[in-house]
Amino acid sequence: MGTVADVVGAALVRLGADHVFGVVGSGNFHVTNALVKHGARFVATRHEGGAATAADAYSRLTGRPGVVTVHQGCGLTNAMTGIAEAAKSRTPMIVVAAEPAASARLSNFRVDQEALARAVGAASERVHGPATAVSDTARAWRLAVAERRTVVLNLPIDVQAASAEFTDPPAAPSIEPPRASDAAVTALADLLANAQRPVFIAGRGALHARAELETLAARCGALLATSAVAKGLFAGNDWNLDVSGGFATPLAAELISSADVVVAWGASLNMWTSRHGKLINPAATVVQVDIDQSSLGAHRPVHLGVVSDARLCAVAVTPRSRAPLPVSGPIRYGVSSTPAAAGVTSRSPTTAPPRTSTREHSASPSTTCSRRNAWWPSTRVTSWATRRCSCPFPITEGSVSRRPSSRSVSDSPPRSAPPWPTPAGPRSRRAATAVS
Protein backbone atom coordinates (compact mmCIF):
# COMPACT_ATOMS: atom_id res chain seq x y z
CA MET A 1 0.00 0.00 0.00
CA GLY A 2 1.30 3.46 -0.92
CA THR A 3 0.09 7.02 -0.59
CA VAL A 4 -2.48 9.00 -2.51
CA ALA A 5 0.35 10.85 -4.28
CA ASP A 6 1.75 7.53 -5.48
CA VAL A 7 -1.68 6.32 -6.58
CA VAL A 8 -2.39 9.51 -8.55
CA GLY A 9 0.98 9.28 -10.31
CA ALA A 10 0.44 5.62 -11.15
CA ALA A 11 -3.10 6.26 -12.39
CA LEU A 12 -1.99 9.07 -14.70
CA VAL A 13 0.72 6.89 -16.23
CA ARG A 14 -1.72 4.01 -16.64
CA LEU A 15 -4.16 6.37 -18.37
CA GLY A 16 -1.49 7.46 -20.84
CA ALA A 17 0.74 10.17 -19.34
CA ASP A 18 4.23 9.60 -20.75
CA HIS A 19 5.80 13.05 -20.37
CA VAL A 20 5.29 15.56 -17.61
CA PHE A 21 6.59 19.14 -17.48
CA GLY A 22 7.01 21.23 -14.39
CA VAL A 23 8.93 22.84 -11.56
CA VAL A 24 9.23 20.76 -8.42
CA GLY A 25 8.43 22.18 -5.00
CA SER A 26 7.63 20.60 -1.67
CA GLY A 27 3.93 20.36 -2.54
CA ASN A 28 4.29 18.41 -5.80
CA PHE A 29 7.53 16.56 -5.02
CA HIS A 30 5.93 13.22 -4.15
CA VAL A 31 3.42 13.07 -6.99
CA THR A 32 6.13 14.02 -9.48
CA ASN A 33 8.35 11.25 -8.14
CA ALA A 34 5.42 8.86 -8.50
CA LEU A 35 4.92 9.82 -12.13
CA VAL A 36 8.60 9.18 -12.86
CA LYS A 37 8.62 5.96 -10.82
CA HIS A 38 5.80 4.52 -12.89
CA GLY A 39 7.33 5.38 -16.24
CA ALA A 40 6.73 9.03 -17.18
CA ARG A 41 9.58 11.23 -18.39
CA PHE A 42 9.92 14.42 -16.32
CA VAL A 43 11.09 17.54 -18.18
CA ALA A 44 12.17 20.27 -15.76
CA THR A 45 11.65 23.88 -16.79
CA ARG A 46 12.97 27.12 -15.33
CA HIS A 47 9.53 28.56 -14.71
CA GLU A 48 6.02 27.15 -14.38
CA GLY A 49 4.86 29.33 -17.28
CA GLY A 50 7.35 27.51 -19.48
CA ALA A 51 6.11 24.17 -18.19
CA ALA A 52 2.49 24.93 -19.12
CA THR A 53 3.48 26.24 -22.54
CA ALA A 54 5.72 23.22 -23.17
CA ALA A 55 2.94 20.80 -22.22
CA ASP A 56 0.57 22.68 -24.52
CA ALA A 57 3.08 22.43 -27.37
CA TYR A 58 3.73 18.76 -26.62
CA SER A 59 0.02 17.99 -26.86
CA ARG A 60 -0.34 19.81 -30.16
CA LEU A 61 2.74 18.12 -31.60
CA THR A 62 1.96 14.57 -30.50
CA GLY A 63 -1.82 14.52 -30.24
CA ARG A 64 -1.49 13.22 -26.67
CA PRO A 65 -2.67 15.01 -23.50
CA GLY A 66 -0.06 17.29 -21.96
CA VAL A 67 0.71 16.95 -18.25
CA VAL A 68 2.03 19.67 -15.95
CA THR A 69 2.98 19.44 -12.27
CA VAL A 70 3.25 22.55 -10.07
CA HIS A 71 3.58 23.64 -6.47
CA GLN A 72 0.54 24.97 -4.62
CA GLY A 73 -0.36 28.66 -4.79
CA CYS A 74 2.52 30.48 -6.45
CA GLY A 75 3.40 27.50 -8.63
CA LEU A 76 -0.07 27.55 -10.11
CA THR A 77 -0.25 31.33 -10.48
CA ASN A 78 3.10 31.30 -12.31
CA ALA A 79 1.64 28.82 -14.82
CA MET A 80 -1.61 30.69 -15.44
CA THR A 81 -0.69 32.38 -18.73
CA GLY A 82 0.22 29.03 -20.29
CA ILE A 83 -2.87 27.42 -18.79
CA ALA A 84 -5.07 30.20 -20.15
CA GLU A 85 -3.68 29.80 -23.66
CA ALA A 86 -4.14 26.01 -23.54
CA ALA A 87 -7.70 26.36 -22.26
CA LYS A 88 -8.66 28.89 -24.93
CA SER A 89 -7.10 26.66 -27.59
CA ARG A 90 -8.98 23.57 -26.35
CA THR A 91 -5.74 21.71 -25.66
CA PRO A 92 -6.26 18.48 -23.72
CA MET A 93 -4.00 19.02 -20.71
CA ILE A 94 -3.84 17.98 -17.06
CA VAL A 95 -2.31 20.39 -14.54
CA VAL A 96 -1.51 18.49 -11.35
CA ALA A 97 -1.46 21.25 -8.76
CA ALA A 98 -0.65 20.75 -5.12
CA GLU A 99 -3.08 22.51 -2.77
CA PRO A 100 -2.79 23.59 0.88
CA ALA A 101 -4.50 21.31 3.37
CA ALA A 102 -8.09 22.23 4.18
CA SER A 103 -7.01 22.95 7.77
CA ALA A 104 -4.21 25.33 6.68
CA ARG A 105 -6.51 28.33 6.39
CA LEU A 106 -3.71 30.85 7.01
CA SER A 107 -1.17 29.32 4.63
CA ASN A 108 0.71 31.89 2.56
CA PHE A 109 0.21 29.55 -0.40
CA ARG A 110 -3.57 29.53 -0.16
CA VAL A 111 -5.36 30.97 -3.16
CA ASP A 112 -8.67 29.96 -4.66
CA GLN A 113 -7.21 27.51 -7.15
CA GLU A 114 -10.59 26.38 -8.43
CA ALA A 115 -11.60 29.97 -9.20
CA LEU A 116 -8.26 30.63 -10.89
CA ALA A 117 -8.79 27.69 -13.23
CA ARG A 118 -12.35 28.61 -14.12
CA ALA A 119 -11.44 32.28 -14.63
CA VAL A 120 -9.32 31.39 -17.68
CA GLY A 121 -11.65 28.75 -19.10
CA ALA A 122 -10.01 25.65 -17.62
CA ALA A 123 -11.94 23.00 -15.72
CA SER A 124 -11.22 22.28 -12.06
CA GLU A 125 -11.20 18.84 -10.44
CA ARG A 126 -9.95 17.65 -7.08
CA VAL A 127 -8.65 14.45 -5.52
CA HIS A 128 -10.98 14.18 -2.53
CA GLY A 129 -9.48 11.28 -0.58
CA PRO A 130 -7.87 7.83 -0.63
CA ALA A 131 -11.05 6.00 -1.58
CA THR A 132 -11.64 8.14 -4.68
CA ALA A 133 -8.07 8.95 -5.71
CA VAL A 134 -8.11 6.74 -8.82
CA SER A 135 -11.63 7.66 -9.92
CA ASP A 136 -11.00 11.38 -9.34
CA THR A 137 -7.86 11.20 -11.47
CA ALA A 138 -9.61 9.20 -14.18
CA ARG A 139 -12.49 11.69 -14.26
CA ALA A 140 -10.08 14.59 -14.86
CA TRP A 141 -8.28 12.63 -17.59
CA ARG A 142 -11.53 11.71 -19.38
CA LEU A 143 -12.67 15.34 -19.28
CA ALA A 144 -9.40 16.49 -20.82
CA VAL A 145 -9.46 13.87 -23.58
CA ALA A 146 -13.15 13.54 -24.41
CA GLU A 147 -13.96 17.25 -24.36
CA ARG A 148 -10.52 18.62 -25.24
CA ARG A 149 -10.32 20.61 -22.02
CA THR A 150 -7.46 21.89 -19.91
CA VAL A 151 -8.09 20.54 -16.41
CA VAL A 152 -6.49 21.64 -13.14
CA LEU A 153 -6.40 18.60 -10.85
CA ASN A 154 -6.02 19.93 -7.29
CA LEU A 155 -4.19 17.62 -4.91
CA PRO A 156 -4.37 18.75 -1.25
CA ILE A 157 -1.18 18.10 0.70
CA ASP A 158 -2.92 16.31 3.56
CA VAL A 159 -4.75 14.06 1.13
CA GLN A 160 -1.50 13.29 -0.72
CA ALA A 161 0.05 11.81 2.42
CA ALA A 162 -2.86 9.49 3.24
CA SER A 163 -2.49 5.75 2.68
CA ALA A 164 -4.17 4.42 -0.46
CA GLU A 165 -4.23 1.32 -2.61
CA PHE A 166 -3.93 1.47 -6.38
CA THR A 167 -6.58 -0.09 -8.59
CA ASP A 168 -6.83 0.05 -12.36
CA PRO A 169 -8.64 3.19 -13.56
CA PRO A 170 -12.11 2.51 -14.97
CA ALA A 171 -12.17 2.05 -18.73
CA ALA A 172 -13.11 5.21 -20.60
CA PRO A 173 -16.24 4.91 -22.74
CA SER A 174 -15.79 5.03 -26.49
CA ILE A 175 -16.95 8.43 -27.76
CA GLU A 176 -17.66 8.99 -31.43
CA PRO A 177 -17.32 12.51 -32.84
CA PRO A 178 -20.59 14.14 -33.94
CA ARG A 179 -21.77 13.62 -37.50
CA ALA A 180 -23.77 16.05 -39.60
CA SER A 181 -27.47 15.32 -40.05
CA ASP A 182 -28.74 14.29 -43.49
CA ALA A 183 -30.56 17.61 -43.81
CA ALA A 184 -27.37 19.58 -43.05
CA VAL A 185 -25.31 17.50 -45.50
CA THR A 186 -27.89 18.01 -48.26
CA ALA A 187 -28.11 21.75 -47.59
CA LEU A 188 -24.32 22.18 -47.70
CA ALA A 189 -24.01 20.04 -50.84
CA ASP A 190 -26.64 22.16 -52.59
CA LEU A 191 -24.92 25.40 -51.60
CA LEU A 192 -21.58 24.21 -52.96
CA ALA A 193 -23.11 22.89 -56.17
CA ASN A 194 -24.63 26.28 -56.93
CA ALA A 195 -21.72 28.39 -55.72
CA GLN A 196 -19.87 30.49 -58.27
CA ARG A 197 -16.81 31.27 -56.13
CA PRO A 198 -16.63 29.06 -53.00
CA VAL A 199 -13.85 29.38 -50.43
CA PHE A 200 -13.00 26.96 -47.61
CA ILE A 201 -11.40 28.34 -44.43
CA ALA A 202 -10.00 25.56 -42.23
CA GLY A 203 -9.10 26.07 -38.58
CA ARG A 204 -7.59 24.05 -35.76
CA GLY A 205 -10.64 21.78 -35.78
CA ALA A 206 -9.82 20.62 -39.31
CA LEU A 207 -6.13 19.79 -38.95
CA HIS A 208 -6.96 16.10 -39.35
CA ALA A 209 -9.10 16.63 -42.46
CA ARG A 210 -6.71 17.90 -45.15
CA ALA A 211 -7.26 15.09 -47.66
CA GLU A 212 -11.03 15.11 -47.30
CA LEU A 213 -11.29 18.90 -47.65
CA GLU A 214 -9.00 18.94 -50.67
CA THR A 215 -11.12 16.24 -52.33
CA LEU A 216 -14.33 18.18 -51.74
CA ALA A 217 -12.72 21.46 -52.81
CA ALA A 218 -11.52 19.89 -56.07
CA ARG A 219 -15.04 18.65 -56.77
CA CYS A 220 -16.79 21.97 -56.18
CA GLY A 221 -14.03 24.32 -57.35
CA ALA A 222 -13.32 25.91 -53.97
CA LEU A 223 -10.18 27.80 -53.04
CA LEU A 224 -8.47 26.81 -49.78
CA ALA A 225 -7.47 29.08 -46.89
CA THR A 226 -6.78 28.64 -43.18
CA SER A 227 -6.93 30.50 -39.91
CA ALA A 228 -3.57 31.56 -38.45
CA VAL A 229 -3.33 28.53 -36.15
CA ALA A 230 -3.87 26.13 -39.07
CA LYS A 231 -1.31 27.89 -41.27
CA GLY A 232 0.35 25.41 -43.63
CA LEU A 233 -2.48 22.87 -43.66
CA PHE A 234 -2.82 23.06 -47.45
CA ALA A 235 0.85 23.72 -48.21
CA GLY A 236 1.71 22.45 -51.69
CA ASN A 237 -1.88 22.48 -52.94
CA ASP A 238 -2.33 24.42 -56.20
CA TRP A 239 -5.40 26.20 -54.83
CA ASN A 240 -3.95 27.18 -51.46
CA LEU A 241 -4.44 30.82 -50.45
CA ASP A 242 -2.58 30.32 -47.15
CA VAL A 243 -3.83 32.39 -44.19
CA SER A 244 -7.13 34.25 -44.12
CA GLY A 245 -7.39 37.46 -42.10
CA GLY A 246 -4.79 39.95 -40.99
CA PHE A 247 -1.92 37.79 -42.26
CA ALA A 248 -3.47 37.26 -45.71
CA THR A 249 -1.60 38.42 -48.79
CA PRO A 250 -3.31 41.17 -50.83
CA LEU A 251 -4.30 38.73 -53.58
CA ALA A 252 -5.59 36.14 -51.10
CA ALA A 253 -7.67 38.82 -49.37
CA GLU A 254 -9.08 39.90 -52.71
CA LEU A 255 -10.06 36.35 -53.67
CA ILE A 256 -11.61 35.59 -50.28
CA SER A 257 -13.59 38.83 -50.40
CA SER A 258 -15.02 37.87 -53.80
CA ALA A 259 -16.36 34.51 -52.58
CA ASP A 260 -20.10 33.98 -52.72
CA VAL A 261 -20.00 30.95 -50.39
CA VAL A 262 -17.58 30.71 -47.45
CA VAL A 263 -17.38 27.47 -45.47
CA ALA A 264 -15.50 27.49 -42.16
CA TRP A 265 -14.28 24.03 -41.16
CA GLY A 266 -13.34 23.91 -37.48
CA ALA A 267 -12.65 27.65 -37.59
CA SER A 268 -14.35 30.23 -35.39
CA LEU A 269 -14.31 33.09 -37.94
CA ASN A 270 -13.19 35.45 -35.22
CA MET A 271 -12.05 39.00 -35.88
CA TRP A 272 -8.49 37.90 -36.70
CA THR A 273 -9.59 35.44 -39.38
CA SER A 274 -12.16 37.82 -40.87
CA ARG A 275 -10.21 41.10 -40.49
CA HIS A 276 -12.78 42.41 -38.05
CA GLY A 277 -15.58 41.22 -40.31
CA LYS A 278 -14.39 43.18 -43.35
CA LEU A 279 -12.84 40.26 -45.28
CA ILE A 280 -16.03 38.29 -45.94
CA ASN A 281 -18.41 39.79 -48.47
CA PRO A 282 -21.69 40.84 -46.79
CA ALA A 283 -23.56 39.18 -49.67
CA ALA A 284 -21.77 35.85 -49.21
CA THR A 285 -23.48 32.79 -47.76
CA VAL A 286 -21.52 31.71 -44.68
CA VAL A 287 -21.46 28.12 -43.41
CA GLN A 288 -19.74 26.98 -40.21
CA VAL A 289 -18.93 23.36 -39.38
CA ASP A 290 -17.86 22.69 -35.79
CA ILE A 291 -18.15 19.91 -33.21
CA ASP A 292 -19.18 22.47 -30.58
CA GLN A 293 -22.68 23.81 -31.11
CA SER A 294 -21.98 26.86 -28.96
CA SER A 295 -19.25 27.92 -31.43
CA LEU A 296 -21.68 28.22 -34.34
CA GLY A 297 -22.29 31.88 -35.03
CA ALA A 298 -20.44 32.94 -31.89
CA HIS A 299 -18.32 35.56 -33.67
CA ARG A 300 -20.49 36.45 -36.65
CA PRO A 301 -23.87 35.41 -38.05
CA VAL A 302 -23.87 32.29 -40.21
CA HIS A 303 -26.52 31.13 -42.67
CA LEU A 304 -25.98 27.42 -42.00
CA GLY A 305 -24.47 25.90 -38.86
CA VAL A 306 -23.47 22.25 -38.93
CA VAL A 307 -22.64 20.35 -35.75
CA SER A 308 -20.12 17.79 -36.97
CA ASP A 309 -16.52 16.71 -37.08
CA ALA A 310 -14.95 18.49 -40.07
CA ARG A 311 -13.55 15.34 -41.67
CA LEU A 312 -16.75 13.34 -41.30
CA CYS A 313 -18.81 16.20 -42.72
CA ALA A 314 -16.55 16.59 -45.75
CA VAL A 315 -16.71 12.85 -46.42
CA ALA A 316 -20.51 12.92 -46.23
CA VAL A 317 -20.90 15.97 -48.48
CA THR A 318 -18.51 14.90 -51.25
CA PRO A 319 -20.62 12.14 -52.88
CA ARG A 320 -23.79 14.24 -52.61
CA SER A 321 -22.32 17.35 -54.16
CA ARG A 322 -23.10 17.70 -57.82
CA ALA A 323 -20.38 18.20 -60.39
CA PRO A 324 -18.90 21.70 -60.35
CA LEU A 325 -20.09 24.39 -62.71
CA PRO A 326 -18.54 24.35 -66.21
CA VAL A 327 -16.19 27.22 -65.37
CA SER A 328 -13.89 25.97 -62.62
CA GLY A 329 -11.96 27.57 -59.79
CA PRO A 330 -9.31 29.88 -61.28
CA ILE A 331 -11.43 31.32 -64.13
CA ARG A 332 -14.32 32.02 -61.75
CA TYR A 333 -12.04 34.16 -59.63
CA GLY A 334 -10.65 36.13 -62.57
CA VAL A 335 -7.18 34.55 -62.61
CA SER A 336 -5.82 32.46 -65.46
CA SER A 337 -3.98 29.88 -63.39
CA THR A 338 -3.62 28.54 -59.86
CA PRO A 339 -3.35 30.96 -56.90
CA ALA A 340 0.33 30.04 -56.48
CA ALA A 341 1.10 30.87 -60.10
CA ALA A 342 -1.04 34.01 -59.87
CA GLY A 343 1.09 35.41 -57.09
CA VAL A 344 -0.31 34.28 -53.73
CA THR A 345 2.94 32.50 -52.86
CA SER A 346 5.33 34.90 -54.54
CA ARG A 347 3.75 37.88 -52.81
CA SER A 348 3.77 36.21 -49.43
CA PRO A 349 5.49 38.22 -46.67
CA THR A 350 7.42 35.02 -45.90
CA THR A 351 9.42 35.42 -49.11
CA ALA A 352 9.32 39.21 -49.42
CA PRO A 353 12.65 41.05 -48.98
CA PRO A 354 13.10 41.81 -45.27
CA ARG A 355 13.39 45.35 -44.07
CA THR A 356 16.73 46.48 -42.72
CA SER A 357 17.38 48.43 -39.58
CA THR A 358 19.18 51.77 -39.63
CA ARG A 359 20.53 51.20 -36.14
CA GLU A 360 23.99 49.79 -35.69
CA HIS A 361 24.19 46.26 -34.26
CA SER A 362 20.44 45.74 -34.57
CA ALA A 363 18.03 43.99 -36.89
CA SER A 364 14.39 44.53 -37.62
CA PRO A 365 11.89 41.85 -36.48
CA SER A 366 11.11 41.08 -40.13
CA THR A 367 14.79 40.38 -40.84
CA THR A 368 15.06 38.16 -37.77
CA CYS A 369 11.98 36.15 -38.70
CA SER A 370 13.04 35.76 -42.33
CA ARG A 371 16.47 34.47 -41.39
CA ARG A 372 15.13 32.18 -38.67
CA ASN A 373 12.67 30.72 -41.14
CA ALA A 374 15.59 29.51 -43.26
CA TRP A 375 17.33 27.53 -40.52
CA TRP A 376 14.45 26.37 -38.34
CA PRO A 377 13.70 22.65 -38.66
CA SER A 378 10.53 21.82 -40.58
CA THR A 379 8.94 20.26 -37.48
CA ARG A 380 8.65 22.94 -34.86
CA VAL A 381 6.43 24.65 -32.35
CA THR A 382 6.81 28.40 -32.27
CA SER A 383 5.52 31.06 -29.96
CA TRP A 384 3.76 32.94 -32.76
CA ALA A 385 2.90 32.04 -36.34
CA THR A 386 4.45 35.19 -37.80
CA ARG A 387 3.86 36.42 -41.30
CA ARG A 388 7.43 35.69 -42.34
CA CYS A 389 7.54 32.13 -41.01
CA SER A 390 6.40 29.31 -43.24
CA CYS A 391 4.69 26.33 -41.67
CA PRO A 392 4.84 23.10 -43.68
CA PHE A 393 3.34 21.01 -40.88
CA PRO A 394 0.45 22.85 -39.22
CA ILE A 395 -0.03 20.48 -36.31
CA THR A 396 3.51 21.25 -35.14
CA GLU A 397 3.24 25.02 -35.19
CA GLY A 398 0.59 26.84 -33.23
CA SER A 399 -0.06 30.05 -31.41
CA VAL A 400 1.39 28.67 -28.19
CA SER A 401 1.59 32.16 -26.74
CA ARG A 402 -0.50 35.10 -27.82
CA ARG A 403 2.39 37.47 -27.18
CA PRO A 404 5.09 37.56 -29.89
CA SER A 405 8.40 36.24 -28.64
CA SER A 406 11.76 35.19 -29.99
CA ARG A 407 11.80 32.03 -27.90
CA SER A 408 10.48 28.67 -28.99
CA VAL A 409 10.76 25.05 -27.90
CA SER A 410 13.16 24.41 -30.76
CA ASP A 411 15.27 27.45 -29.81
CA SER A 412 16.23 25.99 -26.45
CA PRO A 413 19.89 24.99 -26.19
CA PRO A 414 20.64 21.25 -25.94
CA ARG A 415 21.03 19.80 -22.48
CA SER A 416 22.75 16.62 -21.38
CA ALA A 417 19.45 14.70 -21.36
CA PRO A 418 18.50 12.84 -24.56
CA PRO A 419 15.75 14.35 -26.72
CA TRP A 420 12.22 13.32 -25.80
CA PRO A 421 10.59 11.32 -28.56
CA THR A 422 7.86 12.40 -30.93
CA PRO A 423 5.59 10.17 -32.99
CA ALA A 424 7.07 8.38 -35.97
CA GLY A 425 6.49 9.84 -39.39
CA PRO A 426 7.41 12.82 -41.52
CA ARG A 427 6.21 15.31 -38.91
CA SER A 428 8.75 14.15 -36.36
CA ARG A 429 12.07 14.36 -38.19
CA ARG A 430 13.53 16.33 -35.33
CA ALA A 431 12.66 15.79 -31.70
CA ALA A 432 12.69 18.77 -29.38
CA THR A 433 15.12 18.73 -26.50
CA ALA A 434 14.83 20.24 -23.06
CA VAL A 435 12.73 23.33 -22.46
CA SER A 436 13.66 26.56 -20.76
Automatic annotation (TrEMBL):
Ranges for region Disordered: 336-372, 395-436
* Gene Ontology molecular functions: acetolactate synthase activity; flavin adenine dinucleotide binding; magnesium ion binding; thiamine pyrophosphate binding
Where is there biased composition of kind Pro residues? 415-424
Q: Which InterPro entries match?
A: DHS-like_NAD/FAD-binding_dom, THDP-binding, Thiamin_PyroP_enz_cen_dom, Thiamin_PyroP_enz_TPP-bd_dom, TPP_enz
Domain Thiamine pyrophosphate enzyme central intervals: 186-313
From start to end residue, where is composition biased (Low complexity)? 345-356, 399-414
> Which Pfam family is one of this chain's hits?
TPP_enzyme_N
- Gene Ontology biological-process annotations: isoleucine biosynthetic process; L-valine biosynthetic process
Spell out the family assignment given in the record's similarity comment. Belongs to the TPP enzyme family.
Q: What is this protein called?
A: Putative truncated acetolactate synthase
